[in-house]
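Exercise 7 asks you to align residues with tokens for two separate proteins.
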Amino acid sequence: MWVVDGFHPASEPTGCLTPEARYLAPMALHIIKLVVGCETIDDLLAWHQDKSQPWVMHTRMTPKRIDEVLDGGSLYRVFKGQILCRQTILAIDTVGEGAASRCEVTVDPPIIRVAPQPRRAFQGWRYLKPEDAPPDLTASEAADLPPDLARQLRELGAW
């Protein structure tokens, strides 16, 4: 839990932040990336099933705002035009030097399913502001509907 000048959000009866605390409160910055080679979350899990080392996402560019991302940020994954899940980012490292350098983003293996959110294709990765991130699904919400049906319901405004 973060603390701003001795202020704990839980100490307020309403749990709300004062305007000053809200402005000063740290907010994690997230990263969003298209999934290549997997069409579903189950495919992603199967791909990593045999690996004993931590999950590492490789990319060419290292984020400039590393401190904000490492302050509780997550890697949101886009499958077939929909953000479907996220994983907590544990570390960001630059490997190599010069033109051969690349970035390795280490993520926590547990996958957290989120409310499907449409996203157009893009190259590389992008920052995702906390207010633009889709909400996490509860275990019952994640298990209730197949992803395609959930996407269709969201497009219709029914879910």
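Second protein for Exercise 7:
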Amino acid sequence: MEKAETPFKRCSMCRKEWLTREEFLADRSMCLDGYQVNRRRIEAGLPPEGILLFTHRIKACGTTLGVSASKFRFAR
């Protein structure tokens, strides 16, 4: 039995899934609305590793999704 692929992100409201980071970023219904800083990490002298906040802008949804900024690091 083949294991189902784990999606990059799933909307908690409408249950839409994006299988890859690239698919998520290419979706024009996703709007980057902000960044939430992780102050505890900064206070500890660590990189912030905050959360990017996206709104799923479709009529039947409108929820905000948080995605760790570390998921958007690109290989060099």
